[in-house]
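Appendix B. Chain record.
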Amino acid sequence: MNYINRLMIRVRESKKGQTMTEYVLIIAAIAVAGYIAYEGLEGGINTIITNVTATLKAA
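Structure tokens predicted for this chain:
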């Protein structure tokens, strides 16, 4: 039982788990920001492509 208590204390004091969690949160925030940017720019990009296609057909 004493070994388990020492192991639990060592795990709690370890910084590796905390660092990994921070990296995961940063990656998740970047993914959410990228998705929001994609959704926001989607309409503008489609409009540009439509205008280019119409211009090429008219030429």
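Further analysis of this model is presented in Appendix C.
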